[in-house]
Batch of 2 targets.
Target 1
Amino acid sequence: MKIKQLSVFLENKPGQLSGPCRVLADAGINIITMSLADTQQFGILRLVVREWQKARDLLEQSGCVVKTTEVLALEVPDRPGGLADVVNVLDQNSINIEYMYAFTFGRGDQAVIVFRFEDVDAALEALRRSKVGLLDSEDLCRLSER
Amino acid sequence: MSIVSEMENRVWSREELMPRPELRALQLQRLRDCVERVSRVPFYREALNRNGTTSEALRGLDDLRRLPLTTKEDLRRNYPFGLFAVPREQLVRLHGSSGTTGKPTIVGYTADDLDNWSTLCARFLPSYALNLAEAAAAQGTDPRSLALRFGHFGAEPWTEDMRCRIELAFGLHAFNNYGLSEVTGPGVSGECCRRNGMHIQEDHFLVECLDPDTLEPVRPGTPGELVITTLTKQAIPLLRYRTRDITTLDDSPCACGRTGMRMARVIGRSDDMLIVRGVNVFPSQIEEALLRVDGTAPHYQIEVDRPGALDEMTIRVEMRPEKFTDSFAALEQLRRDISRTVSSIAGLHAKIELVKPQTLERFEGKARRVFDRRREPGRGP
């Protein structure tokens, strides 16, 4: 259920994003989902791709600093209160969220949110006991290809 | 047994323990002789005539400041033999520098100069030899091969952190010493067992610590350019030679018993000194800060600019790939650690920018790490 996410260090200056994107494009690697977070000083590009080892190697060869982290992808009902229900489960189990980013695949009723937890195993256990839908990387790939 | 107790009382010559008043009297007498000797050199004769200074006019060591300064450029202008104070036949040895940073220079030694030099070096040797022997025995290594390695340590400015690393790597005690080829080569100063500054061999060298900008003496304990007058050299005596090396002087008593004042590790070249918001900053201080903070590589650039009324210093630092984490908090913490360490060592707040590994330009030899944008056209006040 855990999904490998690649985090890429970006300096905060123009043109930093195009390099990694070009590397992946040239290798025919599709970005399933991503987020870009930045401070005034630097940024972190977070990517979920199917062939993460290959992507990691190619990015590193191109001079990027890459860290592999584990995240969870949760299905969240696309309606008012959908996220509140999910977060409630996390609260009840005292699970700390480091960050999250949402995306939809054009499915009418569900959104998918990627969560990075301080303790991914504890989060996984808590979520399994709940009714929250967890997606694995195969699910994500399938969704992105629909 | 500790290094201090092993080396206690290993003093080579009486002069090293000479009470300071006696030492100062010896220095004055030798300074007068030296001025007498340099009067034979046209370059100095003219300079002394301009100042109206003679050896008899030197009443005390404070009068040293009436003597002219000598620079590396003076050595070059008088290449090859213009500053020699003895006839060529008295020279027993010549050293040439090909001039990687300018025109070539040549220095020479008389037989007496070489005798003095071996005494100067011998004063440090007992401690070196002891450590080399111990280290060699412990490792089953030929001491001669270790001796070669040891020779590297004093040649260039190096940081305390580097000392620790070298000591760990080689399993021996590393001592700092200082010298420069224009003056005598190694042997101007060296550390005792206390390793708390390098004792200047003041019976042979008279030193000053001057502000490189104003050429006035700095306040005791603050960094300045080391200026050396050679008291005993015969082949090429030098008056107030500007070493360009930045250090601090300390004449407080040392527990080892030697009375020679101590100079701190050289923290930079006066040419590299940056004045940022009135604070003198040396690139080596930044390097030391980066070495202290875990997670940075010693590759950096310093940029100084004056976007408004005040100078701003930015330090670009290469991150070590293994230290990159996905967490903003950790990266911000790293930046804060660097900033705090820089400000404690250099006394100045700097903006820290983390950059990708291998992205800052690598340099052969002397690194160009400082970019002072204040002097660029259309910038600054």
Target 2
Amino acid sequence: MNILETLTKLWETSGIAQIVTGFTGNGVLQLVMIVLACVLLYLGIVKKFEPLLLVGIAFGMLLTNLPLSGVFNPEYWNTAGDINYGEVLRHGGLLDILYIGVKTGLYPSLIFLGVGAMTDFGPMIANPKSMLMGAGAQFGIYFALVVAILLGFDPQAAASIGIIGGADGPTAIWLTKTLKPEMLAPIAIAAYSYMALIPLIQPPIMKLMTTKKEREIKMEQLRPVSKTEKIVFPIMVTIVTCLVLPSVAPLLGCLMLGNLLKECGVTERLSDTVQNNLMNIVTIFLSISVGATARYDTFLQLDTLKIIVLGLMAFCFATFGGLLIGKIMCKLSGGKINPLIGSAGVSAVPMAARVSQMVGQKANPSNFLLMHAMGPNVAGVIGSAVAAGFLLAVFG
Amino acid sequence: MELLSTLINSVIGMAVVFAVLILLMVIISIMSKVMKKKPAEVQAPAPAAQAVPAANTPAPGSCGEVKLFDVPDKIAAQLMAITAEQLGAPLNTLRFISIKEVK
């Protein structure tokens, strides 16, 4: 083989040649995806939009769209029958192997384990009525579901789009990987992007739906919650919810196990590992493998744009639902409840609660709503998991 | 037809979310009431035990009220926290009588 042949072969097997020769077809689409991945990396790194997840998702997207990289092969996953995991392990790329954790629902459940270990359910136990606002904020899920059906999506796709309104990334991934795996990337990206944009999305709706007088309401300090209550709570929630909706057991079970490890006081080491090391490792695996599903052939479609618009709509109506219940509770309590805490029912812990605090403090600088808003906020996590369990039971 | 069934499913879905969370709310409320009663029952013989406090027993969480003269609550809380930090003593072992702004 002479030098020319060697160079020719090197050129032919390069990704650049693939893009150049296929420039009129897939090559340009791959370039678009590479640019899009770089834009998402910029948003994650510079603008700090959910960087812990968005950076991994964007990098997974970048890797999977580089020609001939072979890190992710959709043909293993988009099969009508059972997935051949033996084949994936023998011949799959790196991200195919990591994707097994998404496909089996392992990563979202482990993320929930960490979320549970980092969550203090005390404010919700102190004020159980706040759970109603967490329930009201799930309205966005069902609203988007109906609109998605109107736009021509099938029920599985519509349910996966609707769950974006739960403002809970792991729950959205957990449901979509079962109902509509080919839509996983746009849904995960929409869910995490909107979660990062909550401080921009929610305040206008909050101001529109509440009067200045309502926003100024100062709430009474929450009662202290005993250690025993905090220990009994996760056990009780697991039993009740899993008896009503068994399909939600992997998610809520892990959430409550994580919380029990934190609260029981005898497993500090495990709680520490779950909150930090395990959570970080799983976040890397989850984000990069979800990003890998964003290939040019499935991502660059009109449906992706529809998903992004419907996701935003789901978020807005989820905020609306939470605020509506907040307003009703404000009226019924004789003005003792600030309706702004209702918007925190959209999960997205603790960002949504911080937004309630921020808007409340703008109306009345001596207003401290954060702990009150944490009640609906953590109730929203349970609410969105219950909604996901329902959708899985009905459309799965 | 699909729209109608989706609408029905959505209503049922919202009802399920509310039902589960209301059920949890009721159970938490009952649990809280039971837990509140228990400490009261346990605390009955406590005064006898408190008669001879151990040397290292920390003071109760609150040691009365502090009188504030022209000092906002927030500043008072900061001052008490700083004092505890400087003394190297837990805040609940200190007793503040009053805080007055020196003009």
